[in-house]
Amino acid sequence: MNVRPAVDQALVEMIDAVFADYRNKRPVGAPVERDTQLWQRLDDLGLVRLTGAEQHGGSGAGWPEAAELLAAAVRHGVRIPLAEHDLLACWLLEAAGIPVDDAVRTVCMLTKQGHATEVPWAATADRVVVVWRADGQYRVVDVAAGELAITPGTNLIGEPRDEVTVDPASLPGTPITLALVTQLRLKSGLVRAIQVCAALDRILQLCVEHVTSRIQFGRPLAKFQAVQNLVSDVACEAALARAATEAALNVAVVNGWSAPELDFLVAVARSCAGHAATVVVRNAHQVHGAIGTTREHRLHEYTRAALAWRSEFGSMQYWDDQVTDAAMHASAGGLWGLITG
């Protein structure tokens, strides 16, 4: 099996330091906003367009580096549209041969009626990359956010999730292939799997720190078998979700997002991450008790994030159905090969 290259540890440490410094200056529960100073700092470090082609102003890195960037942002509770901007919107423009400038972007897929819901960061973005299907062909256009009808909304953790409305007939549009639209769907799905896994890993860390430091009846909570069972389940579910997500990411990177089994692997990653979130969130709040429900404790920043992200860019039901459909299509003779790759 081909293995993707390791990420430069110096880059990982630099990314972590940037987010840690930012987080230390913000109180727990601060409102979500696109911090322009942080964005500029990340831009100066080449992290805003981390995976963009160097000839188009990017840093020329890959998805492994981008996954580390996303995970670091999650660990430190930093809410910023890095994935939507770099991995989705700007990538799609580059792939379609459309110039990319320094504007902050997000992406959305319109219905036939010209409507899109729960579009991340649309109300705070400078431009929106809009995708729609007309006359049997997909099209894409880079539109100034002010030219769209945008109704602001939020998800469980206060991140912008907005409604976008526009008449597709009024948009010029550049034709794109179904393969690019499929990649957009898979990349969007994998982005959220990466973020959910990072949240689950942070929740596990908080659980371990709590049960080893909290004394009850003269001994640490970690010494109680019931607590041990709760934490071990958290660890197992987080590890399963991470393994499934890393498997999908590895195949995507090694095969240039064109492997025939990639649809299945991304669906498995999203399904595992979504179902893991249920167990991890429930157990983590049981382990922390009353303190874990307070706004001052950071646990909710990760539990609510995991629950919010698992339903974005495709619901749990959607991804579960993708797994089921792939298994049914493979039939008994091909199912084992589908699972093992």
Give your account of this protein's structure:
InterPro entries: AcylCo_DH-like_C, AcylCo_DH/oxidase_C, AcylCoA_DH/ox_N_sf, AcylCoA_DH/oxidase_NM_dom_sf. Pfam families: Acyl-CoA_dh_1. Keywords: FAD, Flavoprotein, Oxidoreductase. Its cofactor is FAD. Residues 192-317 form the Acyl-CoA dehydrogenase/oxidase C-terminal domain. The chain is an alpha+beta fold. It folds into two domains: 9-176, no CATH class; 178-340, Up-down Bundle (Butyryl-CoA Dehydrogenase, subunit A, domain 3). Helices cover 53% and strands 12% of the residues. The chain has nine helices and nine strands. The strands form three sheets. The chain has a four-stranded mixed sheet. The chain has a three-stranded antiparallel sheet with strand order 2-6-5, with no helix packed on it. A two-stranded antiparallel sheet has the order 8-9. The longest helix is centred in the middle third of the chain and has 36 residues, at 178-213. It is globular, with a radius of gyration of 21 Å. It starts with 8 loop residues before the first helix and ends with a helix.
Quick synopsis:
The protein has helices at residues 9-24, 36-44, 63-75, 82-95, 178-213, 225-254, 262-288, 299-309, 316-340, and strands at residues 105-109, 115-120, 127-134, 137-144, 149-151, 161-165, 174-176, 215-216, 219-220.
Give the count of helical stretches. 9
What is the overall pLDDT average? 92
SSE ordering: HHHHEEEEEEEHEEHHHH
How much helix, percentage-wise, in residues? 40-55%
Spatial order of the strands in the main sheet? 1-3-4-7
Main pleated-sheet profile: 4 strands, mixed
Strand content: 5-15%
Total beta-strand segments? 9
- Report low-confidence residues grouped into runs of 5 or more: none
Apparent shape: globular
Q: Any idea what the radius of gyration is? A: 21 Å
Distance between the termini: 10 Å
Count of discrete structural domains: 2
Protein name: Acyl-CoA dehydrogenase
Organism: Mycobacterium intermedium
Family: Belongs to the acyl-CoA dehydrogenase family.
GO molecular function: acyl-CoA dehydrogenase activity; flavin adenine dinucleotide binding
